[in-house]
Design brief:
By secondary structure, this protein is an alpha/beta fold. It has eight helices and 16 strands.
Length: 315
């Protein structure tokens, strides 16, 4: 049982052959055998969500979702360690940052939705060093720092740089929540590697967009906004991508009524910002074709993606 297919290898569309190998489907590059049926659509690996909060949802639906890799950006690190062990058996790759690192009294330390031990209020450089060292030992893949001047105090420049330096000692990138006028530019200048949210508080100037594109990457999380913030984020993302900036998909799963799956409204927002075709697939960062379950995009549209089954090869 084999079919000629078009598949996405992470960079471009290629032609290959899909066949059943024991209990899984394998896609191999190269021309399919003569007479093999043609599978209509595009095959990819499962998608990646770079911004989730698994403590705020029932994560069990991940195992049947279109996601194969998720990055939790704010949670009790011990809960995440247990989740990681649990989901590895189901082929879900979970990475996590552990708690939000914020200023004393800073966002989201005063939010009822924040689970216990999901927020750490950084006292000083020594406290930052101790906390980041403990998180590194607990297996985090990045450090999440908050700079939300609209909702309370933020780390001053010196302490933010101390966090970045300590994270670098452990080879951990800093992902920053930047909210409020000037915060996106500030955290980028202070050494953040990635913004947890594409900037939405204000329309960045073209010069600021160029500087952002040269220094940090953005996680999309566009669909959580409406009104003026949505207009800002769509415009900023469109110009950021045009300037060569790296954009990756993230839904902020757990922020409101969000699916434990690909978020179709986030795909729509990315399209509003001009992402389509291969460029949209690249933002979704699907896993490699040879690494586990696969998706079939019947018309090449991620919104219509579903898990590929052996029955698809018989059509």
């Amino acid at each position: 049982m084999a079919a000629a297919v078009t598949y996405f290898d992470g960079a471009m569309l290629r032609e290959g052959t899909a066949s059943r190998d024991a209990d899984r489907i394998v896609v191999r590059p190269g021309q399919a055998p003569a007479g093999a049926p043609l599978l209509d659509g595009v095959i990819t690996g499962l998608f990646t969500d770079h911004h989730v909060h698994l403590q705020l949802v029932d994560p069990s639906a991940l195992t049947s979702s279109r996601l194969g890799r998720v990055i939790d950006l704010g949670a009790d690190v011990d809960v995440m360690r247990r989740y990681k062990a649990r989901f590895e058996n189901d082929g879900i790759d979970l990475e996590y940052a552990g708690p939000f690192l914020t200023a004393v009294g800073g966002y989201p330390s005063d939010r009822d939705w924040a689970p216990d031990r999901a927020v750490h209020q950084v006292q000083d450089a020594a406290d930052a060093a101790a906390m980041i060292g403990a998180l590194a030992a607990a297996g985090v893949g990045c450090i999440k720092v908050v700079g939300n001047s609209d909702a309370g105090p933020v780390l001053d420049d010196e302490l933010f740089r101390a966090v970045v330096r300590e994270a670098a000692e452990h080879r951990l990138p800093v992902v920053a929540h930047a909210e409020g006028a000037g915060q996106a530019q500030r955290v980028a200048q202070l050494g953040a590697a990635r913004l947890a949210h594409s900037p939405f508080s204000e329309r960045l100037s073209d010069e600021e967009i160029e500087l952002q594109a040269a220094s940090v990457s953005w996680i999309s999380t566009m669909a959580i906004h409406e009104g003026e913030p949505y207009a800002h984020v769509v415009d900023n993302v469109r110009r950021f991508v045009t300037a060569g900036g790296e954009l990756v998909y993230g839904s902020d799963m757990g922020n409101g009524d969000t699916p434990v799956d690909l978020r179709d409204s986030e795909i729509a927002a990315l399209r509003d910002a001009g992402l389509k075709g291969i460029d949209l697939l690249r933002v979704l960062a699907p896993a490699g074709i040879g690494s586990g379950d696969l998706l079939l995009l019947p018309d090449g549209d991620p919104v219509h993606a579903r898990r590929l089954t052996p029955a698809d090869l018989e059509a």
